[in-house]
Amino acid sequence: MVIIHFKDMDTEISQLEPDEECRKYGLSERSAYNVVRGHPWDKVQAMQANVWSSENPQGLISLGVAENPLLQHEVGTYMKNSIAVTDNDHLGYGVGPRGSPRLRKALASFFNLEFRSHDPVRAKDVLILPGVMSVLDSLTWSICNEGEGIIVPLPFYTGFNPAVQERSRGVLIQAPFQSLEGYQSLDDVFSPVIIQQSLEGALQKAASNGVKIRAVLISKYDPIVSKSSILYAIS
């Protein structure tokens, strides 16, 4: 069994300049820029093809993906037993690209009940997208002009960088904690005083660099635990 983190993985980066990529492959400037910057997905795909299981004890356990393999069997069984696919509802244009009307209606009801929104959330206000990466990409595209920023407190998922930057050319502004006066441990990332100091520092830094802030992502945490706690839990 091998435990790896994305920081241990190399990424393939083109040796050509963006304008050379454009000429050689007929790419747009946006696409050429992303090729030159490199991406980790080839390595991720290779890693995920050899994940640990009881049948593959020499496989990899990744600490870099937001997956819960402990519940995969239960969730898979529930889906097989509880979900029926109907042609028109699930496979036709009747549902549309915005997501299942039934799901959007249920989510609107959930948001109104659980979050007590100032204005009622309607089903037509809800848009379904395939995962957080797509949500962040679409959000950045919708609210940020090129070079405008979104503040995200540390630590955060590494996928936020391409989601904000690749297509929309947004700027991800990190709000650190460890350098702040009074910071002692990860518990402090939930302290209102520390959070305020962190966000204000990030806002001032963005302003000094000429970056206009369009949004602050204030709740983006996966469970935060120490490396020793993770190793103990899987041992």
From TrEMBL:
<dbReference type="GO" id="GO:0030170">
    <property type="term" value="F:pyridoxal phosphate binding"/>
</dbReference>
<dbReference type="InterPro" id="IPR004839">
    <property type="entry name" value="Aminotransferase_I/II_large"/>
</dbReference>
<dbReference type="InterPro" id="IPR015422">
    <property type="entry name" value="PyrdxlP-dep_Trfase_small"/>
</dbReference>
<feature type="domain" description="Aminotransferase class I/classII large">
    <location>
        <begin position="61"/>
        <end position="180"/>
    </location>
</feature>
<dbReference type="InterPro" id="IPR015424">
    <property type="entry name" value="PyrdxlP-dep_Trfase"/>
</dbReference>
<dbReference type="Pfam" id="PF00155">
    <property type="entry name" value="Aminotran_1_2"/>
</dbReference>
<dbReference type="InterPro" id="IPR015421">
    <property type="entry name" value="PyrdxlP-dep_Trfase_major"/>
</dbReference>
<protein>
    <recommendedName>
        <fullName>Aminotransferase class I/classII large domain-containing protein</fullName>
    </recommendedName>
</protein>
